[in-house]
## 1
Amino acid sequence: MSRVGRLVVIEGLDGSGKRTLTEALTKALHNLGKSVATRAFPRYGESVHADLVREALHGGHGDLAASVHGMAVLYALDRRGAADAIVDDLKLHDIVLLDRYVASNAAYGAARLHQDARGEFVEWVRELEVTRFGLPLPDTQILLRVRPEVAAERAARRAQSEVDRAKDAFESDDDLQIRCARVYDQLAADGWLSPWQVVDGTAGFDAAELAAGLVHPG
Ligand SMILES: Nc1ncnc2c1ncn2[C@@H]1O[C@H](COP(=O)(O)OP(=O)(O)OP(=O)(O)O)[C@@H](O)[C@H]1O
Ligand SMILES: Cc1cn([C@H]2C[C@H](O)[C@@H](COP(=O)(O)O)O2)c(=O)[nH]c1=O
């Protein structure tokens, strides 16, 4: 059976509200009678590569976190391990919603290296994950755009209220988040890997309207 569903990716800064939007969109799509599969990357607790990432972001594994390419390969291997499951989801569901995907690797790695969206790193990620690993391309990517200081405040509040959510090395680096926001804006403007839709996550969003747009694109 071939792909019938649409692959929709939600991207944005740490604490921007991706998980919250994923949950709201899932409900709104169900209300429209659509079947939805959701996944979040990294797949903590499910993939050894994701667990290594989490440990490195919290100071484990020596100087692993300092290696931009080393960390990006771990994120990419986590996704490669889920590729077949995503393809299966696309055969069975109307919408497959992903909380972070390949563009997270592009945005964070480029920002760490002080590159922009047209630099070598972003192209290296595309070559690794799309060309070499064969990850399915998104049909659309949603950039949940929130000012970095707002995202940082939300992440800080969540770190206080939820167990096991202490800020990691990337979340604690305000300058990295500011550069990352710029790379995301460029990826969206360039239509990297797919068309993008930019959603203002500071003002709040209308999940029903967004869901309707996903079901009847264009
Ligand atoms: N529109 C909003 N207004 C106010 N607070 C919000 C909004 N959306 C999410 N939050 C809160 O901000 C915090 C971060 O939200 P959420 O976990 O959805 O972000 P995230 O982008 O998935 O984060 P991460 O990428 O770091 O996992 C949560 O405490 C959530 O309740
Ligand atoms: C999937 C993915 C994530 N990242 C970065 C983004 C975050 O700062 C951390 C952890 O993600 P979480 O959503 O806060 O759990 O990792 C990345 O650099 N590359 C990726 O592919």
## 2
Amino acid sequence: MNDASRTYDVVVIGAGPVGENAADRTVAAGLSTAIVERELVGGECSYWACMPSKALLRPVIARAEGRRLPGLSEALSGPLDPAAVFGRRDEFTSHWDDAGQVGWLDSAGIDLVRGHGRLDGPKQVVVATPDGGTVRLTARHAVVLATGTTAALPSLPGLDEVRPWISRDATGAKEVPGRLAVVGGGVVAVEMATVFQALGSQVTLLVRGQGLLPKMEPFAGELVADSLREAGADVRFGASVASVARTGGEVRIGLADGGELVADEILFATGRRPHTGDLGLDTVGLTPGDWLSVDDTCRVTAVEDGWLYAVGDINHRALLTHQGKYQARMAGAAIGVRAKGEPVDDRPWGAHVATADHAAVPQVVFTDPEVGAVGLTAAEAERAGLRVKVVDYDLANVSGASLFGDDYRGRARMVVDLDRGVLAGVTFVGPGTGELLHSATIAVAGEVPVERLWHAVPSYPTISEIWLRLLETYRQ
Ligand SMILES: Cc1cc2nc3c(=O)[nH]c(=O)nc-3n(C[C@H](O)[C@H](O)[C@H](O)COP(=O)(O)OP(=O)(O)OC[C@H]3O[C@@H](n4cnc5c(N)ncnc54)[C@H](O)[C@@H]3O)c2cc1C
Ligand SMILES: NC(=O)c1ccc[n+]([C@@H]2O[C@H](COP(=O)([O-])OP(=O)(O)OC[C@H]3O[C@@H](n4cnc5c(N)ncnc54)[C@H](O)[C@@H]3O)[C@@H](O)[C@H]2O)c1
């Protein structure tokens, strides 16, 4: 063994939250593990996605909530201080320094190899190191790909010259643009529109569809759109960008309907593409640039002998940090038992399978109002052929919600699978509901019978009383 060629039980490429967790689990299973990272240990989530975006959103949401409380609202009438908001964000990204996360890798017994990793045939990884050298890593048991995603941009004439913002530019911003155009109606678009409108930008949201948050219950996007408009944002539906050009510091945006919009910056929040284009996938018979299909233990299905795993965003099952970390826990444990020749517990909800990816993926959108959803929407349940009862309730009628803030607006939906007597999905929309979501995740993942939920008594007067109201409505 020398510096340029090393052998480990497991090699992980990508030290985002998901790769880190996979490595932690394989070390816990007694397997020597190296992790390869080309940028910052901690990945997109820690430095450019979850953490900075939520650090930017927190004062925005806290202020919006405080402004609904007479006695407090007067003290919150002034503008937010962007420099202080950006400063707190910088603390949460550790000023884009990964020393803390590298220390954690050390403490967990995971070897870090810095550089760009590529597959080079079965169980082989070649790392191009920052000093121009190469390190060959051989895996005895498994290679785990956890290389995440980057922003997907549409192909538009002139886009490169415009220097458009992608999510990294928004979450890492140092200045507040006077006019910000945001293209897209998904999670990044609504969260960043919320931040920049509150920090002082005039935001225009250009949504090609007819609603926001199209993967969720329709009322979620409707309530978020109402609130963005009340905050002063211009939310346009059926608005497709046809061309972009930068002249004299301004971006001129041509719309498909012939209209034009002028902005100082344009953010494309139009989805993600996987970091699989330059990963050596062709050396193992896969197509560069593709998302990677996996089984429930996260093994890449198209590769023989079961040595290649893909966890987190790149398998396209659920582009969320918590769900990727869950996959990493399952895959890491599966690699551990397979290495020992022990049986894999791959029954649904078994110890080595990411069953929740199919039935119980939770997500909180940190807008005002917050949106929390888990499991199937009513439309998805219908498409899946389930016999369901859809139960809606206006959160404004819950005592805990009206105490939370005046003029409370929110709505909840419970989708009951009538044949199994359990919940297929739950959605909460309203201020303060994000922390409520895990109760629904437990009910859905635990397949708690609706009749037993009737005995789970929510405390009075909390927003959790929505559970009682939904169940009463269901039983009527
Ligand atoms: C603006 C924004 C906000 C978000 N907010 C949330 C949120 O609030 N909650 C949530 O659950 N999810 C959120 N997400 C999604 C979340 O960021 C991702 O689901 C998560 O980062 C996926 O983790 P990962 O480890 O799979 O990939 P990543 O975090 O992308 O990490 C992949 C790592 O692999 C490295 N890498 C890539 N290729 C190579 C290579 N060839 N060699 C070596 N290293 C390589 C990268 O440098 C990176 O460090 C957000 C996303 C965005 C864009
Ligand atoms: N709070 C959270 O959990 C959180 C926050 C941010 C991001 N994320 C995750 O990160 C991922 C990426 O988020 P995202 O918002 O970029 O993707 P997304 O898939 O949620 O939304 C992309 C939106 O862009 C639209 N779009 C795509 N191409 C377009 C085009 N050419 N022109 C106009 N519109 C176009 C789509 O119709 C869609 O509405 C998501 O999977 C999301 O779950 C999660």
## 3
Amino acid sequence: MIALDLTEKRFGPTQVLGALRLEVARGEVLGIEGPSGTGKSTLLRILAGVDTRFEGKMQAPSRRAMVFQEPVLMPWRRVIDNLTIPTGASEDEAEHWLCRVGLSGYGAHWPGQLSLGQARRVGLARAFASRPELLILDEPFVSLDAERVDDLLELTARLISETQPAVVLASHAVRELDRLATRRAVLAGRPARLTAL
Ligand SMILES: Nc1ncnc2c1ncn2[C@@H]1O[C@H](COP(=O)(O)OP(=O)(O)OP(=O)(O)O)[C@@H](O)[C@H]1O
């Protein structure tokens, strides 16, 4: 379970996020939509623990994983190491997750040998390999063609349903929100506030 009671988040003189509260229990998927530049990624980075410079209180589980808009793999490490090093998973566990995302046998590949869709799958495998209690998805399917998005959506839905983390998903895509979100909210305004739908 994640609980955030935010007073404000600013970058220097600019207040990006206003007061907002958010709670997500395990098994729930909170889908956040909102205009570009309102602060969705900023909010997600706070929830992920990447940005700790905010006013307010947060109760978050220790095992958190984030899937970014870009897969951000270490290009100088093989795929298998991209799973084991950041997560502490064993090679067997990493192979298991590669297999789950349809990349069985890709462990010895270099990230530069992967298509964007495959790199996204590795990003997803890496997130699940850390056995997250909180999973944060920041536009994880952006710039893939429709068929690939559908495949990845189904896969993500299956893995979430099996592992039951609390999930926060930011997306502009109605299809993704419709398929994954169990609850929806809109982030809008300047400073931005969260309104449940
Ligand atoms: N490190 C930073 N320093 C200063 N301003 C920042 C920083 N990061 C984000 N911002 C500003 O905060 C605002 C919110 O940015 P953010 O990336 O969170 O928006 P977003 O809703 O995720 O946008 P998009 O949907 O386009 O990804 C923007 O005005 C952006 O310019």
